[in-house]
């Protein structure tokens, strides 16, 4: 099947199922596995966030109050690619092309392709979507085999953190202004041996004030701005030291603040969320027998380093 993926996580699922050769077009943000970067790109963003601060990005996104989509879709290229299957989503208009834009583009095609929409809010739903994608491409057996291995990895994490103290964890999906990390992230924290603050499993992310963050007195803070890697997050970290009550937060006093590669392991509802659970377990329980994070996966931010920025 000639397949167009309009969601980076779906691109990863297609390749995981062993159907890379079916992909004929992807988004401008699809970067994993690396070989998909050479495929035709059907989308572009109305905001160039490179060089912008978190506050500037937030203001630019919030300025789209007239129903405009953050992303555009190249309908002419979509027509030329003649897809049999289009994989899209309806979860977040800030994360991918909106359903309305996709439907308008598809309605103009001479032959309507099959549309598979992924809308997970939990880790189990992400794994189920991985199987759905595999089955749609005739690779259901491979997709099921891979997801069973992911479940085995999650069970290993559960055994590794069982019986250990569960710190209260604040996961921030955006820094200025702060947003809680919702959907599948609270579940990931629980699986990794922590108690999630600000959102329960499946609940959406929400905007907060710094007073709420400090008032919750988290024992660990994980910075995971949506779409950012570790380096990009570290560039924003200096603003944290200026926030009210920041230095009095237990996690800050104890040096338990980390930046993680959110783009790879937390923002996208794809298979690499399993690695995100392993990363959280390693950060929250460094003595537990779980894989140690690489520097490009996670970095500790000490109180001194934050003040110096």
Automatic annotation (TrEMBL):
InterPro entries annotated for this entry? ABC_transptr_periplasmic_BD, Vitamin_B12-ABC_binding
Can you tell me where the transmembrane regions are?
none
Q: What region holds the Fe/B12 periplasmic-binding domain? A: 2-288
Name the chain's protein. Cobalamin-binding protein
Which species does the entry assign this protein to? Answer: Rubrobacter xylanophilus
